[in-house]
Write a structure and sequence with these properties.
Elements lengths: L1 H37 L1 E16 L9 E17 L2 E13 L1 H6 L5 E7 L2 E8 L3 H6 L18 H5 L2
Keywords: Membrane, Transmembrane, Transmembrane helix
């Protein structure tokens, strides 16, 4: 008799797990459809990023705190209204996943796939045109901490 109770509890738990898995998979598919329909690729200059703990919108989970990943970036938004092209810079607060959050560094420009205020995918950072035109890489080990203001070898030997 005791093993029947254990078996029934095990079957109920497995059934609950399968139902939860199928339910979350259905919600993820719905979200992916919405994201793919609305995503656009923009160049975003990242100003700030932070991790916050927020409560869920669901009334059953409202007391639980979940980590959310925010990225504040500057985006150039362009729009054509009655034949007039208008564009402006706008600061936007984006939400993203942990893996995309870890790819992003502050004060860098990235191409990102965004839909609304959600960052779906971060592409490689854009290299600056200034570094390419001079033919210099960003890391020059010959210079000291203060760049061109370090002492030359002759000055060091004259001591």
């Amino acid at each position: 008799m005791r093993w029947w109770i254990t078996l029934v509890i095990l079957v109920v738990l497995v059934g609950l797990y399968v139902w939860l898995y199928l339910y979350t998979r259905k919600r993820q598919k719905k979200f992916d459809e919405q994201y793919n329909a609305a995503k656009e690729r923009h160049e975003i200059f990242v100003l700030n990023k932070k991790v916050t703990k927020e409560s869920a919108q669901n009334r059953w989970m409202r007391f639980a705190k979940f980590k959310t990943y925010h990225v504040v970036g500057r985006v150039s938004v362009a729009q054509k209204v009655k034949g007039i092209q208008m564009s402006r810079m706008q600061t936007v607060n984006f939400h993203t996943t942990k893996t995309e959050y870890e790819k992003i560094q502050v004060n860098h420009k990235y191409k990102m796939d965004i839909a609304g205020n959600y960052i779906g995918y971060v592409h490689a950072p854009l290299s600056s045109a200034k570094g390419k035109s001079n033919g210099k890489s960003g890391t020059d080990k010959g210079k000291g901490f203060f760049g061109r203001f370090t002492r030359s070898k002759k000055a060091n030997n004259s001591k």
